[in-house]
Amino acid sequence: MTMGERLKEERQRIGVNQTVLAEKCGVTKNTQLAYEKGERSPDTAYLANAALLGLDILYVVTGDATPQVVEGYTAVEDKLVNRYRALPQADQEAIHRIVDAMWELSSKGRE
Question: For a tag on the chain, would you pick the N or C end, based on fewer CB atoms within 10 A?
Answer without folding.
Answer: C
